[in-house]
Amino acid sequence: MSVTYLDAIRAAQEKALEDDPSVFIYGQDVGKFGGAFKATKNLAEKFPGRVIDSPISEDAMVGLAVGAAMEGMRPVVEMQFADFSTVGLNQMLNHAATTYWRTGRPCPMVLRLPSGGTPGSGPFHSQSMEAIYAHYPGLVVMTPATVEDAYSMLLEAIAMPDPVVFCEHKLLYYHLKAKSLPAEAVPAFKAHVARPGRDVTCVAYSAMVHEALAAADELAGEGYETEVVDLRTVKPLDTDTILASVARTGRLLAVGESWPWGGVSAEVVSRVASEGFELLDAPPRRLNAKDTPIPYHPNLWSAHRPTAVRIAEALREVLRY
Amino acid sequence: MATRTMDREVGKASSQAEQDPMERMSRAMLRARVLEDKLASLYRAGRIVGGVYLGRGQEGLSAAGGVALRKGDVLAPLIRDMAGRLGFGEPLVDAVRAYLGSKLGPMKGRDGNIHRGDLSRGILPMISHLGAMVSATAGVLLAKRMKKEKGFVGLTSAGDGATSTGSFHEGLNVAAVEKLPLVVVVADNGYAYSTPNDRQFACTDLLDRAKGYGVEGHGVDGTDPEACWEVVGRAVQRAREGAGPQLVVGRLLRLCGHGEHDDGLYIDKKMKSSDRGRDCMEVLRDQMKSRGLGKDWDRWEKEAQEEVEGAVKKVAEEPLPDPFEEDWRATAMVGAAEAVQKG
Ligand SMILES: Cc1ncc(C[n+]2csc(CCOP(=O)(O)OP(=O)(O)O)c2C)c(N)n1
Description:
The complex is a heterodimer of chains A (about 325) and B (about 350). Chain A has about 325 residues and is of the alpha/beta class.
């Protein structure tokens, strides 16, 4: 028996629906059809009236969830692709995110975003949106990289009193497997040292954790020990765990699948530079996708995003300094 | 499905049977007008934090919505809904506090003026983004339905301009798909800020859109408070009975600028001097007089003046928000507050 990343997301929703009558799921094709990726398969049958098909109205989907959350429910909204959440951005950034601050009343809701690139998906079905959401106060942004985290962090997200953007990586949906669902979990706001090492710190999140781990394997063959830090949640950012790792290694590479202007990797480098300057033996570096829309053809796509090979190259440069 | 109810006789007949709502309308409208006149003068005196947006000329349509709702219902007011808020039961002092920036206000100085709301009273705090409140109100109603509450209604308003947003469309469409008890009251005052309707949409009458959404539509002369009560009251009743979303379009004019910073000189003079430019307060006063309630009207007006003066005086002495006392937390999480605050 094994569980995929997608199974974990489905199972977490099933458990949340079972445990808490205020949870409901809302999204395009999530009902009887079970969702574009089947993340809600069979849930509509099992929980009648609580797994609801929405029209293609991202603004209204999020707006409706905000209203329902204000009224004490815990909606989980599935975007068909993260990319389409731009249409609902206003309700998330200006409505969900400001509600607690303005009213003192919580707005507990989860926005599930099938995120990130897969071969052949092109400019509009590949985006990573975490940086845009993380920029706005009032939101929590999670980017699980493992099956275990997909499960436990989604449960935590649903239980939180705040609006959570849950970025699930589509590349991990079917291929990433674990033996079973976790019985216990690291709290969602703690970063995790996915691989310990003494020579260089590689901070990554979501699918990039796996590329970083592969790069670390490659460098191990060359005699370098890379410490891979999986951020897990990018807002709030667990700066302490990052700094503790840099204190051990003295070197930093921050990797993100999203674009190079600003974003999570920039935030990591900026924090380490300003709060941990004296820990560094080399200039902290970042590696991101290229600054173009995400290409369609796999030949272009695999050169657009950071891969184990490119991460290994960047790590070598940090190590050479 | 759309019905135009411009017949004032209808309004008269039924509201004579129920004096109470017209008295409530009168009081809400008088309190709103007196308060807004006061806010305008405070604005000119530089005593208001931020902008002032008034509902002058739109009190009748707005009040009808507030008065038609009851406890357990939800109101998502917009910028010209002082009368509706007061009619629904928002304390007048909340408005004064929001405008003067009192720390004791419903938003504690974190947000102000028209953006105030009180979820414990079923008043949603509007965000500025026009159209956004339609789906949020639908969400509250969906939640109430899931919680097995019964007999509730939600009402939100929009201007003619707000109907052009994608958000408005998505929200009304979703409400219609879910058959939610939502009433959307459109105050068609012919202008969105300075933009006249012919630059806003190409249909002749916004009411025609009801059919496209599959919702019931009601037109009303927004300058006639009795008719407003009749028509909005009926729309609320229809929603309560399970007839799904209701679109009310009231035709009127705003008898002021977009905000108090604006002189509104772009409003067509002919329109102003037409029936559409009537002041609903004068219409209502005559309506109440003809029912023999002229003296009551005068008394309500006096009471409103006293209430407003008292509230302004009281709020002027209240503490202002203090950045050193503010906790600067944008998330509700208790344990994780510190982590989140660090960002
Ligand atoms: C999405 C959005 N765009 C622009 C604005 C700026 N704005 C505030 S009120 C307004 C005019 C609104 O006109 P209308 O909806 O007709 O209402 P009215 O002011 O006439 O009551 C505009 C453009 C806004 N608040 N929201």
